[in-house]
Amino acid sequence: MRIVNLIENTNGHAPCAAAHGLSFYIETAGHRLLVDLGPSEETLRNAERLGVDLQTVDTVVLSHGHYDHTGGVMAFAALNRTAPIFMQKSAVDAYYADDGEQAGSERFRYIGIDARISALPQVRLIDGDHRIDDELSLFVIERRAFAWPPGNARLLRKTSGGFVRDSFDHEQCLVIREGRRRVLVSGCAHNGILNILAEVARKFGSAPDAVFSGFHLMKKTDYTAEEIVEIERTAEALKRYDTTYYTCHCTGVPAFDVMKTVLGGQLHYVHSGDEITLFGTEGEG
Questions:
Q1: Which helix (H) or strand (E) covers residue 87, if one does?
Q2: Which of 96, 148, 244, 268 measures 20 to 30 Å from 209, CA to CA?
Q3: In whole angstroms, what separates CA 64 from the centre of its chain?
């Protein structure tokens, strides 16, 4: 299985642009797929730089309804008109970030998807879990035993009655089967990576062998001592699984560094343009 990070927040060794967002290109035995399409058309330009032919993509999964994961969709749909695009039906709702009183009239900032996406003929709006085929399954989080990432507190859904806290029912995750092995691909893990892993074990019978996901731990300010302790506790809980983690984007480099001290070789950072080969000769580009 080949997994290429087409775009995320940091530069790797490949000659690719970095931007706040995420997109994975994945080759399996039966598919060429995309999970998310980054914040803009730069995702497509990175694919070209890396020699990834997006016209061969046969499946697209959008992890949730935020712009930084869907900004390249319209450009992709103009290039590839046949690949179905799977998204939760609630991903088309209006999502905002609360930037605080100091932002004044710009306090509530729209972070949802381009409204044109839902009208694309290849879009498949789904509601809850969905099995695409023997290799690919989508699932949503129905049970939560662990706390959400604290950054969720400022993320909102706009309703007819005003702003309410986002419940992240629009977030979906992908499980890829390869023989007896499973790979979990998420976007930001807004439902909490520990909740997601528990849901994989419940719905699929065991924890995944590998995880590709942001952990939504990034902050614009320094972490408090209490926040550092919570990040360490999360890493300690992840360490109990026999799983290798590949993270990026909304985890943030400072949080990654804290988690790395706990997880060691179980945790890797994948930069923009990096490539991972799983279940074969494994390495990072």
A1: strand 85-88
A2: 148
A3: 8
Question: Considering the entire predicted model, what is its pTM?
Answer: 0.95
CA atoms within 13 A on the CB side of 215: 31
C-alpha to C-alpha distance for 162 and 191, rounded to whole angstroms = 22
Angle at 153 between CA 151 and CA 158, to 5 degrees: 120
Tell me which DSSP letter residue 59 carries: E
Domains and CATH numbers, the chain: 2-92+116-150+168-277 (3.60.15.10)
Q: What are φ and ψ of residue 125, in 5° steps?
A: -85, 120
**Of 174, 214, 209, nearest in space to 279 by CA:** 209
State how far the Cα of 238 lies from the Cα of 257, in Å rounded to an integer.
15
Strand partners of residue 131: 137
Compute the average pLDDT of residues 29-45: 98
Neighbours of 2 (CB within 10 A): 14
Q: What is the pLDDT of residues 182-228, one digit of tens each?
A: 999 999 999 999 999 999 999 999 999 999 999 999 998 999 999 99
3-state SS class at 196 = helix
